[in-house]
Protein backbone atom coordinates (compact mmCIF):
# COMPACT_ATOMS: atom_id res chain seq x y z
CA UNK A 1 0.00 0.00 0.00
CA UNK A 2 1.42 3.45 -0.88
CA UNK A 3 2.88 5.44 1.97
CA UNK A 4 1.20 8.49 3.54
CA UNK A 5 3.79 10.56 1.65
CA UNK A 6 2.38 9.33 -1.69
CA UNK A 7 -1.15 10.06 -0.44
CA UNK A 8 -0.16 13.62 0.43
CA UNK A 9 1.58 14.13 -2.91
CA UNK A 10 -1.45 12.84 -4.80
CA UNK A 11 -3.69 15.37 -3.10
CA UNK A 12 -1.57 18.17 -4.59
CA UNK A 13 -1.96 16.92 -8.16
CA UNK A 14 -4.74 18.02 -10.52
CA UNK A 15 -5.17 14.42 -11.67
CA UNK A 16 -6.34 13.19 -8.25
CA UNK A 17 -7.72 16.38 -6.70
CA UNK A 18 -11.36 15.69 -7.77
CA UNK A 19 -11.42 12.29 -6.01
CA UNK A 20 -12.93 11.84 -2.59
CA UNK A 21 -10.86 10.16 0.14
CA UNK A 22 -12.68 6.88 -0.48
CA UNK A 23 -12.08 7.10 -4.24
CA UNK A 24 -8.44 8.00 -3.72
CA UNK A 25 -7.90 5.03 -1.41
CA UNK A 26 -9.53 2.77 -4.00
CA UNK A 27 -7.34 4.18 -6.77
CA UNK A 28 -4.23 3.51 -4.72
CA UNK A 29 -5.04 -0.20 -4.29
CA UNK A 30 -2.56 -2.23 -6.25
CA UNK A 31 -0.18 0.71 -6.73
CA UNK A 32 3.46 0.46 -5.78
CA UNK A 33 5.52 3.57 -4.96
CA UNK A 34 8.90 3.81 -6.70
CA UNK A 35 11.77 6.11 -5.80
CA UNK A 36 14.16 6.60 -8.72
CA UNK A 37 17.66 8.04 -8.68
CA UNK A 38 18.69 10.67 -11.24
CA UNK A 39 19.70 9.02 -14.51
CA UNK A 40 17.77 5.80 -13.86
CA UNK A 41 15.94 4.07 -16.71
CA UNK A 42 12.28 3.51 -15.79
CA UNK A 43 11.74 1.33 -18.86
CA UNK A 44 13.28 0.94 -22.29
CA UNK A 45 11.90 1.28 -25.79
CA UNK A 46 10.53 -2.09 -26.89
CA UNK A 47 10.38 -3.51 -23.35
CA UNK A 48 7.16 -5.35 -22.33
CA UNK A 49 4.53 -2.85 -21.15
CA UNK A 50 4.05 -4.39 -17.73
CA UNK A 51 2.95 -1.26 -15.82
CA UNK A 52 1.43 2.19 -16.14
CA UNK A 53 2.52 5.08 -13.95
CA UNK A 54 1.81 8.48 -12.44
CA UNK A 55 4.72 10.79 -11.63
CA UNK A 56 4.41 12.31 -8.15
CA UNK A 57 7.67 14.24 -7.88
CA UNK A 58 10.67 14.99 -10.08
CA UNK A 59 11.03 15.00 -13.85
CA UNK A 60 11.39 12.31 -16.52
CA UNK A 61 12.60 12.40 -20.12
CA UNK A 62 10.95 10.36 -22.88
CA UNK A 63 13.24 9.43 -25.77
CA UNK A 64 12.96 7.36 -28.93
CA UNK A 65 15.52 5.94 -31.31
CA UNK A 66 14.47 6.36 -34.93
CA UNK A 67 14.92 3.60 -37.55
CA UNK A 68 17.99 5.55 -38.71
CA UNK A 69 19.50 5.20 -35.22
CA UNK A 70 19.04 8.85 -34.22
CA UNK A 71 17.89 9.58 -30.67
CA UNK A 72 15.19 12.21 -30.23
CA UNK A 73 13.53 13.59 -27.12
CA UNK A 74 9.79 13.18 -27.44
CA UNK A 75 8.69 15.07 -24.33
CA UNK A 76 9.25 15.59 -20.61
CA UNK A 77 7.02 14.11 -17.90
CA UNK A 78 6.05 16.44 -15.05
CA UNK A 79 4.41 15.73 -11.66
CA UNK A 80 0.79 14.68 -12.14
CA UNK A 81 1.38 13.23 -15.61
CA UNK A 82 0.45 9.65 -16.46
CA UNK A 83 3.00 7.72 -18.53
CA UNK A 84 3.72 4.21 -19.69
CA UNK A 85 0.24 3.98 -21.20
CA UNK A 86 1.07 1.20 -23.66
CA UNK A 87 -1.83 -0.81 -22.18
CA UNK A 88 -4.24 2.06 -22.89
CA UNK A 89 -3.13 2.05 -26.54
CA UNK A 90 -3.50 -1.72 -26.87
CA UNK A 91 0.26 -2.18 -27.22
CA UNK A 92 2.24 -4.95 -25.56
CA UNK A 93 5.53 -3.01 -25.54
CA UNK A 94 6.57 0.50 -24.57
CA UNK A 95 7.11 2.71 -27.65
CA UNK A 96 9.82 4.84 -26.01
CA UNK A 97 12.46 4.91 -23.28
CA UNK A 98 11.82 6.87 -20.07
CA UNK A 99 14.72 8.15 -17.94
CA UNK A 100 14.83 10.25 -14.80
CA UNK A 101 16.20 13.78 -15.20
CA UNK A 102 16.39 14.20 -11.43
CA UNK A 103 15.46 12.10 -8.41
CA UNK A 104 11.80 11.21 -8.83
CA UNK A 105 8.90 9.42 -7.16
CA UNK A 106 6.16 7.67 -9.09
CA UNK A 107 3.35 5.18 -8.57
CA UNK A 108 3.17 2.04 -10.69
CA UNK A 109 0.11 -0.12 -11.38
CA UNK A 110 0.21 -3.49 -13.20
CA UNK A 111 -0.90 -3.15 -16.82
CA UNK A 112 -3.42 -5.92 -16.22
CA UNK A 113 -5.27 -3.58 -13.82
CA UNK A 114 -5.83 -0.88 -16.47
CA UNK A 115 -9.38 -1.84 -17.48
CA UNK A 116 -10.63 -2.25 -13.91
CA UNK A 117 -8.80 0.95 -12.92
CA UNK A 118 -10.50 3.03 -15.61
CA UNK A 119 -13.89 1.37 -15.06
CA UNK A 120 -13.78 2.15 -11.34
CA UNK A 121 -12.50 5.70 -11.83
CA UNK A 122 -14.11 7.31 -14.89
CA UNK A 123 -12.58 10.70 -14.02
CA UNK A 124 -9.10 9.20 -14.31
CA UNK A 125 -10.05 7.39 -17.52
CA UNK A 126 -11.21 10.69 -19.04
CA UNK A 127 -7.99 12.41 -17.99
CA UNK A 128 -5.90 9.57 -19.43
CA UNK A 129 -7.75 9.93 -22.74
CA UNK A 130 -7.20 13.69 -22.61
CA UNK A 131 -3.50 13.09 -21.96
CA UNK A 132 -3.11 10.86 -25.00
CA UNK A 133 -5.06 13.33 -27.15
CA UNK A 134 -2.83 16.20 -26.02
CA UNK A 135 0.31 14.21 -26.79
CA UNK A 136 -1.00 13.46 -30.27
CA UNK A 137 -1.72 17.16 -30.78
CA UNK A 138 1.75 18.06 -29.51
CA UNK A 139 3.28 15.60 -31.99
CA UNK A 140 1.35 17.23 -34.85
CA UNK A 141 2.53 20.68 -33.76
CA UNK A 142 6.16 19.56 -33.68
CA UNK A 143 5.88 18.02 -37.15
CA UNK A 144 4.47 21.32 -38.44
CA UNK A 145 7.31 23.24 -36.80
CA UNK A 146 9.93 20.95 -38.34
CA UNK A 147 8.33 21.48 -41.74
CA UNK A 148 7.64 25.22 -41.60
CA UNK A 149 9.84 26.96 -39.00
CA UNK A 150 13.49 27.86 -39.18
CA UNK A 151 15.84 26.62 -36.47
CA UNK A 152 15.71 29.78 -34.35
CA UNK A 153 11.90 29.66 -34.27
CA UNK A 154 11.89 25.97 -33.31
CA UNK A 155 14.36 26.44 -30.45
CA UNK A 156 12.47 29.51 -29.19
CA UNK A 157 9.12 27.68 -29.27
CA UNK A 158 10.61 24.69 -27.47
CA UNK A 159 11.99 26.80 -24.61
CA UNK A 160 8.67 28.63 -24.28
CA UNK A 161 6.82 25.29 -24.05
CA UNK A 162 9.19 24.04 -21.36
CA UNK A 163 8.73 27.27 -19.40
CA UNK A 164 4.95 26.98 -19.68
CA UNK A 165 4.98 23.37 -18.47
CA UNK A 166 7.57 23.54 -15.70
CA UNK A 167 8.85 27.10 -15.32
CA UNK A 168 9.83 28.34 -11.87
CA UNK A 169 10.28 32.08 -11.15
CA UNK A 170 13.72 33.10 -9.86
CA UNK A 171 15.52 36.40 -9.29
CA UNK A 172 17.11 36.06 -12.74
CA UNK A 173 13.91 35.24 -14.61
CA UNK A 174 11.96 32.02 -15.20
CA UNK A 175 13.97 28.81 -14.83
CA UNK A 176 13.02 25.82 -17.00
CA UNK A 177 12.58 23.97 -13.72
CA UNK A 178 14.75 20.90 -14.23
CA UNK A 179 18.27 20.10 -15.46
CA UNK A 180 18.42 20.40 -19.26
CA UNK A 181 21.40 20.42 -21.60
CA UNK A 182 21.96 22.06 -24.97
CA UNK A 183 22.10 18.57 -26.46
CA UNK A 184 18.60 17.94 -25.06
CA UNK A 185 17.34 21.06 -26.84
CA UNK A 186 19.02 19.91 -30.06
CA UNK A 187 17.32 16.51 -29.85
CA UNK A 188 13.94 18.14 -29.28
CA UNK A 189 14.25 20.51 -32.22
CA UNK A 190 15.91 18.39 -34.89
CA UNK A 191 19.10 20.41 -35.03
CA UNK A 192 22.70 20.18 -33.83
CA UNK A 193 24.43 20.94 -30.55
CA UNK A 194 26.55 23.56 -32.34
CA UNK A 195 23.47 25.41 -33.60
CA UNK A 196 21.75 25.43 -30.20
CA UNK A 197 24.96 26.64 -28.52
CA UNK A 198 25.30 29.45 -31.05
CA UNK A 199 21.67 30.56 -30.58
CA UNK A 200 21.80 30.47 -26.78
CA UNK A 201 25.08 32.40 -26.76
CA UNK A 202 23.56 35.04 -29.03
CA UNK A 203 20.39 35.26 -26.91
CA UNK A 204 22.50 35.52 -23.75
CA UNK A 205 24.36 38.52 -25.18
CA UNK A 206 21.02 40.13 -26.06
CA UNK A 207 19.67 39.58 -22.52
CA UNK A 208 16.92 37.15 -23.61
CA UNK A 209 18.18 34.13 -21.65
CA UNK A 210 20.90 33.17 -19.26
CA UNK A 211 22.28 29.66 -19.39
CA UNK A 212 24.81 27.50 -17.65
CA UNK A 213 25.53 23.85 -17.10
CA UNK A 214 22.20 22.01 -17.45
CA UNK A 215 20.31 25.26 -16.80
CA UNK A 216 18.32 27.73 -18.89
CA UNK A 217 16.63 30.83 -17.46
CA UNK A 218 14.31 32.96 -19.58
CA UNK A 219 14.91 36.65 -18.81
CA UNK A 220 12.77 38.29 -21.51
CA UNK A 221 9.68 36.25 -22.48
CA UNK A 222 8.43 38.97 -24.83
CA UNK A 223 11.70 38.98 -26.77
CA UNK A 224 11.65 35.19 -27.11
CA UNK A 225 8.04 35.24 -28.29
CA UNK A 226 9.03 37.73 -30.99
CA UNK A 227 11.62 35.24 -32.25
CA UNK A 228 8.86 32.69 -32.90
CA UNK A 229 7.03 35.04 -35.25
CA UNK A 230 7.55 34.72 -39.00
CA UNK A 231 9.81 37.23 -40.66
CA UNK A 232 7.95 40.12 -42.36
CA UNK A 233 7.53 39.69 -46.11
CA UNK A 234 9.96 41.59 -48.32
CA UNK A 235 8.82 45.07 -49.29
CA UNK A 236 7.04 45.25 -52.63
CA UNK A 237 8.72 48.18 -54.36
CA UNK A 238 5.81 48.55 -56.81
CA UNK A 239 3.47 49.26 -53.90
CA UNK A 240 5.67 51.92 -52.35
CA UNK A 241 4.22 55.42 -52.70
CA UNK A 242 7.55 56.80 -53.83
CA UNK A 243 7.69 54.22 -56.63
CA UNK A 244 4.09 54.10 -57.82
CA UNK A 245 5.16 55.63 -61.16
CA UNK A 246 7.94 53.12 -61.46
CA UNK A 247 11.25 52.72 -59.67
CA UNK A 248 13.35 55.85 -59.36
CA UNK A 249 15.64 56.57 -62.27
CA UNK A 250 19.29 55.94 -61.75
CA UNK A 251 21.18 59.14 -61.06
CA UNK A 252 22.95 60.53 -64.06
CA UNK A 253 26.70 60.41 -63.99
CA UNK A 254 28.79 62.89 -65.93
CA UNK A 255 31.87 61.28 -67.29
CA UNK A 256 34.57 63.42 -68.75
CA UNK A 257 37.01 61.78 -71.06
CA UNK A 258 40.33 63.44 -71.35
CA UNK A 259 42.98 62.72 -73.89
From TrEMBL:
Task: Give the HTH crp-type domain ranges.
Answer: 149-222
An example GO CC term for this entry is: cytosol
- UniProt keyword annotations, A-Z: DNA-binding, Transcription, Transcription regulation
By its UniProt entry, which PROSITE patterns does this protein fall under? CNMP_BINDING_3, HTH_CRP_2
The domain of life for this entry's organism is Bacteria
Q: What Pfam families is this protein classified in?
A: cNMP_binding (PF00027), HTH_Crp_2 (PF13545)
Q: What is the name of this protein? A: Global nitrogen regulator
Coiled-coil annotated spans: none
Q: Could you tell me one molecular function GO term of this UniProt entry?
A: DNA binding
The Cyclic nucleotide-binding domain sits at 15-108
Q: Which CDD domains match?
A: CAP_ED, HTH_CRP
Amino acid sequence: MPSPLCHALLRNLDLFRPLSDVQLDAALRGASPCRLEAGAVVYGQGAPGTHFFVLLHGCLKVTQVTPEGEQIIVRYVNPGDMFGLACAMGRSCYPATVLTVQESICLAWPAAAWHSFTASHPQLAALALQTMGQRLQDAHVRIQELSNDDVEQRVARTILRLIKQSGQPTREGIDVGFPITRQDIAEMTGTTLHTVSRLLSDWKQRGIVSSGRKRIVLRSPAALVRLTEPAPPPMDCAACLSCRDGPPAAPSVNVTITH
